[in-house]
Design goal:
single chain, alpha/beta, Rossmann fold, 2 domains, 4-stranded antiparallel β-sheet, 9 helices, 32% helix, globular, binds magnesium ion
Amino acid sequence: MEDYLKKPYKAILFDWDGTAIVSRGAPVDQVIPCLNNLLEKGIKLVIISGTTYNNIAHGQLEELIPAKLSQNLFLGLGRGAFNYGFDKDGKLVMLHQAVPDTEELLKIHKVGFAIHQLLLADYNMLTDIVFSRPNYCKIDLLVAHERGDHAYLTAGELDMVNAVLERHHFAGGMRQLIHTAQEIAEQHGLSLKATTDAKYLEVGLTTKADNVKYFLKNHLFPAGIASRDCAFWGDEFTYLGPEVKGSDAEMIIAEAAGADFFDVSAQPFQLPEEVNGVGGGVDRFLDFMKAQSLHVKNQPSYE
Ligand SMILES: [Mg+2]
């Protein structure tokens, strides 16, 4: 048996799209029983996703997870913006949110628009901006490129973005664009985090790192769960290019040192050194969850 299937964990923090389910809207009848089995054994589960509650299990977790089990289930969503748990009746409750007021949000929008202006005025490159996110802007760098129903990056998308930037004489590719975005934010008096999933440059207050930080500090460490007791699973830990991290790599934070990280993607370009590339997609993750439920002997602990 693989080592990662033998070690019992007390908490599992995992990405949703591409890790727990194949794609958004896919059936959840395989993953939900895995979650319930582990929750029943007192394992804490934390879904860490860039999306919103309605895109996780069709917004039906309240119905799919019995109330006594959901006490051990948490969700860190919206790229760091929202942290949820469940109350005693199994109803979703907001535990913490990092959502700016309108004035502050408009400042973030100005930064997004300034990036758009720079690329258009100096490089004759058109972008689209999504303003409707809670604490960040999404800048579409491949405006003519339809992504279909998949919400995750595909191999080659970063190459396409870098080719477009090069064609417009923007030197240094995505890596430089991330630096430039942060500089523009500083010029606007803001300290923002810029990340990418290749097609989009995202600029805002938080990332998945902030979700992880919140749950470790407020719910896992206080429950006696150390970082070495935690497993992190995702499908986008891979570097997209030099110094350009995939969105799941944001989960690798100093506070999580000693935890185990696993990537299920089929063809990792290159993984951060902390991450074990196990491949196998969603099936590999579900096998791991099933193995955990077989050998974990923790006493249930319902907070
Ligand atoms: Mg994913």
